[in-house]
Amino acid sequence: MDARLGPVLCASLLAAAPACAADYLPWRVTDSAIEEPLGGLRGDAARGRELVIARDKGNCLACHHLPIPEQPSHGTIGPPLMGVGARLSAGQLRLRVVDEKQLNPATIMPAFYLHPEALYRPRPDAATTILTAQELEDVVAYLTTLK
Length: 147
Ligand code: HEC
Description:
The structure is a single chain. The longest helix has 12 residues, at 133-144. By secondary structure, the protein is mostly helical. It has a single domain (19-144), classed as Orthogonal Bundle (Cytochrome Bc1 Complex, Chain D, domain 2), CATH 1.10.760. It has helices spanning 5-12, 45-53, 84-87, 90-99, 133-144. 29% of the residues lie in helices and 0% in strands. Helix 2 crosses helix 5 (133-144). It has five helices and no strands. The radius of gyration is 15 Å and the shape is globular. Heme C (HEC) is lined by residues 52, 58-60, 62-64, 77-79, 81, 84, 87, 93, 96-97, 100, 104, 107-110, 112, 139, 143. Residues 52, 58-60, 62-64, 77-79, 81, 84, 87, 93, 96-97, 100, 104, 107-110, 112, 139, 143 line the site of heme C (HEC).
């Protein structure tokens, strides 16, 4: 690995960019949930709805059916997420989107906020989470509205 790349990349990332190892926010699992919002951030449900559609962000529609009628294609690989906000608490939803493998090591659902050092990437120095902490909270805020 080129030692020059890691610090330079990390330092150049603004708060809006996905976290690399240096700015990764820790989280804690209790009772199959992450109760505390990442970094104490407040999610925006409207933005979360955009992120679950965005193919370069959540791309949740690739695997899940969601109540988003304007999108033509909904996946069937994962369970439909209709009413998921009534079935699961915000903390339970947060753990599932941060890292579903904590609950099911064999899942094919991506961990959207996995520690960059736990990722396999061709260039480990450039590894980041898929979603930023703020985006993660936005997605959780949206999911809690699905009652
Ligand atoms: C590659 C397919 C895939 C993608 C992409 C994906 N998921 Fe999943 N998801 C699954 C599967 C499969 C499950 C079933 C549980 C398991 O495998 O552990 C699941 C389970 C879930 C659950 C738990 C549902 C329940 O009723 O218990 C939630 C919530 C969830 N996903 C949210 C999301 C969100 C939000 C996104 C996008 C940010 C997303 N998923 C992206 C495959 C996917």
